[in-house]
Amino acid sequence: MLYQMYAFQRSLFAPARFAIDMTQQTLSNPLNPLSYMPGAKQISAACDVMELLTRRYGKPKFGLKETIVAGKKVAICEHNILEKPFCNLKYFARDVKNNDPKLLIVAPMSGHYATLLRGTVEAMLPDHEVYITDWNDARMVPLFKGKFDLDDYIDYLIEMIELLGPDIHILAVCQPSVPVLAAVAIMSADNNPAVPKSMTLMGGPIDTRKCPTAVNLMSADHSLDWFKRNVTYSVPWPNRGCMRLVYPGFLQLSAFLSMNMTDHIAAQQRMFEHLIEGDDEDVEKHRLFYEEYLAVMDLSAEYYLQTVDTVFQKHALPKGEMVSNGRRIDPGTIAKTALMTVEGEFDDISGIGQTRAAHDICTGITDSMRLHYEQKKVGHYGIFNGSKWRKKIAPRVKAFIQAHN
């Protein structure tokens, strides 16, 4: 009933949100004499912050219109080259004919949309033909489209790699590090000609026994049955995925917020102050960040529960016990794909050593095809977005890809 209660609560709050929005627009309009009354700026700013926090956000757009290639502006056209029930393969076609490496970016399917990696895509576009997994909200996938679990995730990746191969490079951010490594292992064992030339794993939970974070400990402290009973719910009517069992995005968002609640409260206070001061640039930066951060999607319950069980409780991949569709995953079979791992010093999602563990289990890769990089003074989000990503991490990833292209 939790999902139904959440939907009902939002419906009840709709009139209040309308009133808040109208008040903000009224008191911020320079043609309205009321906007010059004492306290009008403070009330308008408070309404603006409240409206931002209580809005339900739809799927954001990437909105990438151009990039710089060889010093020249080049137009970008986004389109899907493969459409699956739970994921579209999006291509950022550049209006230039360059023989640049093809890069498949695998976005995390962990609550946020793939647009969270907008900065990742933007940094790689000048030097690569970029594709990304654009995951669909399970709330919007009808029941007749079938299930989606971790095994299906791996199958999706293999299909995409084969479509783009044989000269493809793959970059996984956070959660997809495990299915990406599994997919490459299966393809390597089969001597698949489309096996990627390189894979870069960034802030991923390859072995969560190393330097466990609060997220890891929470997953280990509760049984799988507890997760099934307490955090999976049926999608209510009138959503297209009505009756599909999901892990709701609003629960994941609550977990994200609770991890750094003090920081989020301070950020809203700064937003309030910037609105009063008329600091439009900082207000816009804040608004863009939270419009992305607060936009969440539901996850298929089968996928969520299988991931918790396989990755966070059984640690099946590093133990050599991971099975997909009845087949054991052996990372030791990977020999033709170069491996780069990236970690952040202050990552509170995937602790130090969890991603680097990929090197321990990929025993078939020679030393000349390996690289590990730890970025100092950066958290989980900073691994793939922000100035440290653009100036320090992305150049190293590009050089690694080029070296093994």
Q: Characteristics of this structure?
A:
single chain, 405 residues, alpha/beta, Rossmann fold, 2 domains, 9-stranded mixed β-sheet, 3-stranded antiparallel β-sheet, 43% helix, globular
The number of helices is: 14
* Count of extended strands: 14
Question: Taking strands numbered 1, 2, ... along the chain, how are they ordered across the largest sheet?
Answer: 1-2-3-5-4-6-7-13-14
Largest beta-sheet characterization:
9 strands, mixed
C-alpha Rg, in Å? Answer: 22 Å
Structural class, please?
alpha/beta
Distance between the termini: 52 Å
Q: Kindly estimate the percentage of residues that lie in beta strands according to DSSP.
A: 15-25%
For the record, the CATH architecture of the largest domain stands as 3-Layer(aba) Sandwich
Helix content estimate: 40-55%
CATH fold category name of the largest domain: Rossmann fold
Q: How many domains, as an integer?
A: 2
Overall morphology: globular
Uncertain stretches: none
- Overall mean confidence score, pLDDT: 89
CATH-assigned homologous superfamily of the largest domain: Alpha/Beta hydrolase fold, catalytic domain
Q: Which class of the largest domain in CATH terms?
A: Alpha Beta
What is the succession of H and E elements? HHEEEEHEHEHEHHEEHHHEHHEEEHEH
